[in-house]
Amino acid sequence: MLRIALQKSGRLSDASLKLIKECGISFTNGTGKLKTVADNFPAEFLFLRDDDIPRYVADGVADVGIVGENVVVEDRSAVTIAQKLGFSKCRLSIAIPRGESYQGIESLQGRHIATSYPNILGDFLKKNNIKATIHEISGSVEIAPSIGLADAICDIVSTGSTLMSNGLQEVEVVFHSQAVLIQTPTLSNEKQKLLQKLLFRIEAVQNARNNKYILLNAPNEVIPKITEILPGMKSPTILPLAMEGWSSLHSVIQEDQFWEIIEQLKAAGAEGILVVPIEKMIY
Ligand code: ATP
Ligand code: MG
Q1: pLDDT of residue 3
Q2: What top-level class would CATH report for the domain 90-176?
Q3: What does the angle CA 69 – CA 5 – CA 20 come to, to the nearest 5 degrees?
Q4: What is the pLDDT of residues 182-191, one digit of tens each?
Q5: Does the pTM of the predicted model rise above 0.95?
Q6: Nearest to 77 by CA among 62, 44, 55
Q7: Does the 2-88+178-208 domain belong in CATH 3.40.50.970?
Q8: What DSSP letter does each residue of 189-232 carry, written as one string?
Q9: Ligand 2 centroid to residue 50 C-alpha, Å
Q10: Which of 42, 87, 88, 191 is least enclosed by beta carbons within 10 angstroms?
Q11: Pocket test for ligand 1, best of 7, 8, 9, 11 (most atoms within 8 A of CB)
Q12: Separation of 70 CA from ligand 1 center, angstroms?
């Protein structure tokens, strides 16, 4: 049985559970339960504080886990990243009081910086030849400058609204993070096979999220032009319509190219364009 560690409650929990569900793995989870077995996959779930996940996985208490890359890198436990998961994206940034002058990274020389990420920050400062004093604090980092504890902070930012409301401005991005699936360095053959099975499913879910199925109608004479615009998995499926001289084309397009492609298709003469979500996608 594969033991999977997930965050019990927090910013990773909902998206982690959604991914597991979309991988077709279901379980009944009584509220407050710390451990549960999947109904239809040889897996057991452990619900933990996110900070504990890298160590549990490194120690082999759990075989794999879903956690923020920031926590994995900071923790320095011996785990490997099996897959980046594309959700809970955020960055670790240095911020200083708003209105204070900043002439680039040299302005941090000799300063005091408060953070919960002393290792990541320490590496960043070293790489940039900055000598600063790091104050490790475990929470409410953003108030450190206003209470005179530090000149700057290094903390997680997603929209920047927390910085804003604490009178801080972001000056350096130290690290880009997203949720990752980590694995213990030594897995038995049997567990390795289960992990491969899980990774195969995760990939199918991720591909589906990044792609859309597109259907459109077009006069036959513009089919070559439209085929050129549609990248698709291979070539588009082309079906004749009951209306003489017209066809229906089906293909797959990437989410990030979506609007640009739709405009080009319209300009080329496509009509009745339908775009539908894909549930799973295997190349
Ligand atoms: P726990 O109680 O499990 O220790 P926590 O309070 O330490 O939880 P959360 O705030 O739930 O942690 O954040 C978990 C992870 O989610 C972070 O390590 C980071 O990778 C990511 N994260 C944090 N803040 C944001 C944000 N604003 N937007 C997106 N992702 C975020
Ligand atoms: Mg935590």
Answers
A1: 98
A2: alpha beta
A3: 90
A4: 999 999 999 9
A5: no
A6: 55
A7: no
A8: HHHHHHHHHHHHHHHHHHHHHHEEEEEEEEEGGGHHHHHHH---
A9: 5
A10: 42
A11: 11
A12: 9
